[in-house]
């Protein structure tokens, strides 16, 4: 418990959330507030973020976010008091509330706060359900301690699965960082229902949605479409209930009479538009189909052709495939990555008969995943390949080769920061890479 004179005992501590955050009561007004503390022994970075949060709260003008009440200091620490927003966090709320209307309400409310935040020159960065409070039918954004200035170039090494890749390096940060996090939030709230929007939010920085207004328009349109789809499905359900279950066509013979041999024929005869989505959504793929190896291979090929990682994962979790099959290896990188999958893909790329450009792309993708997810992987396949490959062939693919060098060095920085490991930079990168991006990262590496 904080053991200081809080402005001559004006603020009475009611609850301690952690060593630096408290719920307090103002003895003069009896109002409840949040008190945050920055002790004198805290790091320079922590003190900087503490002052940043004070600046944000003092300038932010949004009824869906806390506001600064006062700030003061004594010989031991600095303090500030902000308004207290009761209620439960959005992660807890979404476990209880299964409807989709509130999920759209959450996104629209958070967009209001982010718009106000961007207007005062800051990015939120740490966007997640735990930092959103549901209170009196509205959603409030709290905890602005991770904010950074718009267009800053600071590298953030924090472990946050919803952070944009550019936060891990020295590239310029802008509103697209928050849009990337919004994409992760949308995926958590809606799953594959909103994969097109998630895809646009998770593009590389230069191809990502760059305006909150564009994102909002897409959300509103999706909401109306979602409502229409639900109404249509309700009507369709009533229609199917009223239909006779006699096998009048191939689909009826397959579905109502469980004739698994007719599955592929029934599937091909159905409407081609978003066919696999429709079958999954309506539950038309019977359990016996997933247990059939031939049907499983067919379903996985259909899922892969959509290039939708969520749909591929959904089908992959249900089908029966032999361990180590070629199809399983091909599917591997579409699924949610882990360190073993990344290592396996890099090894397969090194051993397989793959075109040079494709091999560079695979290594770059694997390293970017490892950096973003902070996986510990083996760099041996890349080093071994670099020692054996003809350097003149590498230089034909300047951009891919430069990306590999920068990704490789950024991963070494991550290892050095997390594990304290110091590894050598391959000579081929040092000898041939001259771009500004490489020079900036390499200069930072040498300065450590």
From TrEMBL:
A Pfam family per the record: Pkinase
Keywords tagged on the record: ATP-binding, Kinase, Membrane, Nucleotide-binding, Serine/threonine-protein kinase, Transferase, Transmembrane, Transmembrane helix
SMART domains recorded: S_TKc
Chemical reaction(s) catalysed: L-seryl-[protein] + ATP = O-phospho-L-seryl-[protein] + ADP + H(+); L-threonyl-[protein] + ATP = O-phospho-L-threonyl-[protein] + ADP + H(+)
Record keyword Repeat present: no
Molecular function terms, GO-annotated: ATP binding; protein serine/threonine kinase activity
Top-level lineage group: Bacteria
Ranges where the Protein kinase domain occurs: 7-331
Alphabetized InterPro entries for the sequence: Kinase-like_dom_sf, Prot_kinase_dom, Ser/Thr_kinase_AS, Ser_Thr_kinase_AGC
Transmembrane feature ranges: 104-125, 179-200, 220-242
Enzyme nomenclature, EC number: 2.7.11.1
Name of the protein in question: non-specific serine/threonine protein kinase
Classification lineage: Bacteria, Bacillati, Bacillota, Erysipelotrichia, Erysipelotrichales
């Amino acid at each position: 418990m904080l053991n200081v004179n809080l402005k001559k005992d004006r603020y009475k501590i009611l609850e301690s959330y952690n060593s630096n955050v408290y719920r307090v009561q103002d003895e003069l007004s009896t109002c409840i507030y949040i008190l945050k503390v920055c002790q004198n022994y805290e790091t320079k970075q922590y003190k900087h973020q503490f002052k940043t949060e004070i600046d944000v709260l003092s300038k932010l003008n949004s009824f869906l976010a806390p506001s600064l009440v006062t700030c003061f200091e004594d010989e031991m620490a600095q303090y500030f008091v902000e308004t207290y927003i009761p209620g439960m966090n959005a992660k807890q709320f979404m476990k209880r509330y299964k409807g989709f209307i509130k999920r759209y309400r959450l996104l629209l409310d958070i967009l209001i706060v982010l718009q106000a935040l961007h207007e005062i020159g800051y990015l939120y960065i740490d966007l997640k359900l735990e930092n959103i409070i549901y209170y009196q039918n509205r959603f409030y954004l709290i905890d602005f301690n991770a904010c950074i200035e718009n267009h800053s170039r600071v590298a953030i090494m924090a472990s946050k699965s919803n952070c944009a890749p550019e936060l891990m390096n020295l590239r310029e940060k802008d509103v697209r960082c928050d849009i990337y996090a919004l994409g992760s939030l949308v995926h958590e709230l809606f799953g594959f229902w909103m994969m097109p929007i998630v895809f646009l939010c998770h593009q590389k920085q230069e191809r990502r949605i760059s305006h909150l207004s564009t994102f909002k328009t897409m959300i509103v349109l999706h909401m109306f479409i979602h409502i229409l789809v639900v109404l249509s499905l309700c009507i369709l359900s009533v229609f199917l209930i009223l239909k006779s279950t006699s096998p009048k066509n191939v689909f009826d013979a397959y579905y109502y009479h469980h004739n698994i041999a007719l599955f592929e024929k029934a599937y091909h005869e159905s409407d081609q538009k978003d066919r696999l989505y429709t079958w999954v959504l309506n539950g038309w793929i019977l359990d016996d189909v997933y247990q059939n190896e031939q049907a499983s291979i067919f379903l996985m090929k259909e899922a892969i052709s959509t290039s939708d990682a969520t749909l591929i994962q959904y089908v992959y979790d249900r089908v029966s495939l032999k361990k180590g099959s070629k199809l399983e290896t091909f599917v591997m990188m579409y699924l949610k990555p882990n360190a073993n999958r990344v290592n396996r893909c890099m090894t397969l790329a090194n051993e397989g008969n793959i075109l040079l450009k494709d091999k560079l792309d695979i290594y770059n993708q694997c390293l970017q995943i490892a950096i973003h997810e902070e996986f510990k992987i083996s760099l041996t396949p890349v080093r071994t390949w670099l020692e054996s490959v003809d350097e003149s062939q590498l230089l034909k693919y300047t951009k891919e080769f430069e990306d590999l060098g920068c990704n490789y060095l950024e991963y070494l920085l991550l290892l050095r920061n997390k594990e304290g490991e110091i590894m050598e930079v391959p000579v081929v990168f040092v000898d041939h890479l001259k771009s500004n991006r490489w020079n900036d990262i390499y200069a930072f590496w040498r300065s450590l």
